[in-house]
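Subject: mismatched residue count in predicted assembly?

I count 634 residues in my input, but I want to confirm that the predicted structure covers every chain. Input:
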Amino acid sequence: MSNNTIVENLKKEIENFSLKTKAEKIGHVVEVFDGIAKVSGLSDVKSSEMVTFVGGEVGVVLNLEEDTVGIIILGEFSKIKEGDEVRSTGRILEIPVSNNQIGRVLNALGNPIDGKGEVKSDKNYPIEKVAPGVVTRQGVDQPVSTGIKAIDALIPVGRGQRELIIGDRQTGKTAIAIDAILNQKGQDMICVYVSIGQKDSKLRKIQTRLEEGGAMDYTIIVSAGSSEPAALSYIAPYAGVAIAESFMDQGKDVLIVYDDLSKHAVAYREISLLLRRPPGREAYPGDVFYLHSRLLERACRRNKDYGGGSITALPIIETQAGDLSAYIPTNVISITDGQIFLETDLFYKGVRPAVNVGFSVSRVGGSAQIKAMKKVAGTLKLDLAQFRELEAFAQFGSDLDDATKNQLERGKRAVELLKQPQYAPVLTQHQVVSLYALVKGYMDTVPVDQIKAFETGLIEYAEAHAKTFIKEVVEKKMWSDDGEAQLKKAIEDFKVSFIK
Amino acid sequence: MATLSHNDIAQAIYMASKDKKGHELSDIVHSTVKFLAKKRLISKSESILNKLEKFSNKEDGILIAKIVSVKYLGEDSKKDIASILKQKYNAKKVLFEEVEDKTVLGGVKIEVENEIIDLTIFNKLKKLQEHLTR
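Triage response: the counts match. Full output below for your records.
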């Protein structure tokens, strides 16, 4: 663009610029501390309204008191001083949204932080919004395929569901979420990963991993790092879901991961205590339940009349020493439609993903499972639960009857089959093949330490020799008698060659 | 018992002392001080007095306007501003509090209670900047 055109454009813009003078509501800063400002004046300000400070800093009104309002400052607050003017905007805090945000890393205010330049956006979405009502919703009946055998078979997640991932530190919570995002490739799903109070090194690692897996083509990362003020951690998940809603409004399916909500609750506790709200249990404020319920309620599946689209939420909660009955875990368990419970003991036994099948549940996902998967996974969960019980019992070493022994052997193989390395999602049709071989007893004679090799070989063999079965599962979501017979033959043939 | 806010107290003092003169008024002042001492609110008297001033100004139709400009305004412009403000805020009398500030560059900024009418060059330039960078 030549200099002249730039000047011309500027001239035009300046000519178009009209200034409307009107009386604005203002206030004055009474005190500032720890990212909180108490401001006098601002008589007509609403709760959650956005205000601006002299230096351009943005704040959100949280407390409305008789003489002052309590404002959380989003970002740098060291330049704000007593007596500074504060102007209200009349708008609820909103963030820019656009399809150009895909593949980018944003902060909690929707601005890019990955050094790849500005993101052009034409729309703003409010971060606080009432969740879609009953009339606009539809039941959950489409699966979200995570590519993790233990989850897709036993604790299925449907589009529009909220499934909690809970466990101690270092049990693979984030790994499950990342695997789920990686597996969405080609599944017509937009992913939003909200990182709350995480180390920047961890975020970078995740970003690199997603880039390597080609997942950044459909993923947006929203981050409020641990070095940023608590106010940003507090709004990050709401910003994430606002971005997700902008895609849902286009009729798309969105998967959103909140990593993690324990840190979100801690950030909110910090803000609340600084605002002198009365502390309750574990010093959390009284509305910490509402904090998470209003966030997770925005995950939904909308019916066709209202534009379709869905938001599936995978919130993550970190427990302390496996204590599920602490305040925040019980709250979020009761809000969500099920939980995936990860256990340290299992993790160190080598069962990875360390899903505790007994404590994990999916309250709505069952109806979202494809028929073929439902058929093979039907009894697996019960078998595994019984196996855990028998396993403890069998440790006393007494003689066991054949039925119990068989059950134990089957259980061992099931556990072995559900083990899966990180970043190695398995296609649904392949999961069906291997689980079919397990539940029909074909694996009972395969030694436990060779289950892995058997599975890999079997899938390869079935791809070549049970094409009908696989095609039927992919297209019709269920096999026919012919397909089943073909698979049975393929398994038997493969087993003969494998055991040799 | 619900806590008494400074606003409530200021309002009560105003109501009690309204249209009172001489002996009666000094009685009321006396009992007010006694009340504040009993409620341990003497240390808060400054804030209560501020509230009382605001409240009485509002009741009497007095408006205090802060004017920020590069140079002090002439009497004529002040009269004009006063008449506009009287109309806008339904006031009987307007008192001015003037501030000289070179940073506003030009124009005038009028602050009334917690509303502001910003007609300064500085504000216009800032708005233009926002418009151009959007």
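Chain A touches chain B through 20 residues (CB under 8 Å). Marking this ticket as 'not a bug'.
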